[in-house]
Amino acid sequence: xxxxxxxxxxxxxxxxxxxxxxxxxxxxxxxxxxxxxxxxxxxxxxxxxxxxxxxxxxxxxxxxxxxxxxxxxxxxxxxxxxxxxxxxxxxxxxxxxxxxxxxxxxxxxxxxxxxxxxxxxxxxxxxxxxxxxxxxxxxxxxxxxxxxxxxxxxxxxxxxxxxxxxxxxxxxxxxxxxxxxxxxxxxxxxxxxxxxxxxxxxxxxxxxxxxxxxxxxxxxxxxxxxxxxxxxxxxxxxxxxxxxxxxxxxxxxxxxxxxxxxxxxxxxxxxxxxxxxxxxxxxxxxxxxxxxxxxxxxxxxxxxxxxxxxxxxxxxxxxxxxxxxxxxxxxxxxxxxxxxxxxxxxxxxxxxxxxxxxxxxxxxxxxxxxxxxxxxxxxxxxxxxxxxxxxxxxxxxxxxxxxxxxxxxxxxxxxxxxxxxxxxxxxxxxxxxxxxxxxxxxxxxxxxxxx
Length: 451
What we know:
By secondary structure, this protein is an alpha+beta fold. Among the domains are: 31-135 and 314-348, no CATH class; 139-238 and 280-307, Immunoglobulin-like. It is built from 4 helices and 27 strands. The strands form 8 sheets. Strands 10, 13, 14, 17, 18 and 19 form a 6-stranded mixed sheet that branches. Strands 2-1-5-6 form a 4-stranded mixed sheet, with no helix packed on it. A 4-stranded antiparallel sheet has the order 3-4-8-7, with no helix packed on it. Helix 1 (2-24) packs antiparallel against helix 3. The chain is elongated.
């Protein structure tokens, strides 16, 4: 029995080890190359004024490849150039690479959510989904800077923003009482002319002294709203006045030449931050860096400074062989960035621990079964032994009755003197194999019968 237990336990251990190694092995495609699930990723959804083909499409499913994709407007016409403000549908063609093929009930997911598709046989599918173009407010990438010019010179300003359809340059007086479109400055200051491209660039030609301290900014307007740049100041230096040349005296005697008084040097316009009466006017447009965003005053003061509140979208799914990537957009200021993502599958240590737990459970079940079988066998042996003991007791009772009869015969030996020469009966001790006159434990019935 001990040897049988050892063989059973050894066999169970080998089976558990095989199951553990199978659990550690990576999952591969089925033997016939059938693909039952396809994962497709789209790097970004359509945004109004964004390029149609700025996004990328990929699949991480073994045995699949993305052949191509296209965008179509609500009328079914191919979209080209930039997205508008309407609805669009993307169509992605995915093919199975030989020897793989798609199952009849293949499940397809686009950016981790189920998507509709059309099957072209068992080797090609077309994935499609409808989107409404997102409307993003302009994101300012460059603010105008203050200009230091002399009277009659040119002051040039540049401001840039994304997702912008129209640009408007505004000017305000130093006291804040006069505000106008920069194109109206020639009506306030004769001799001034406005140039530039009408969008990102604005030039003020023949700047007069009266423009000193005026501020300008640009307001960007797009499908998702508007944003205004920081204010930039026009600092005008006064033109230097030439000193008069001395006139000669008619007297033949030389007269002392007049002393030339130095011309006053122009003073720089004061910094708004140094003005005790300065009132902060914070821009409605967010400024940002890689970690924070804020709104800024023309004097450089900041408010609402905080870290980015990022919303991440997966671009490429991480695999065992290569990391993935995802794009983040700040919900407050619109700052965008990308980062790599690591594969988060089950680690080798976790798999080993899981295999050991399964092995322990199987061994515990095997021990319970073997112990139950052994207990049942022990019960059967006890029952069988009990029945044998009962039969021996019956035989002993018969022997005792025979012994009583023999004692009776011995006491009445005189009546049987003619039959026995010695006058007394000799007893047979069955355990010691001899005849004597002592008591005995068991009578030999066969020998009594012979007598």
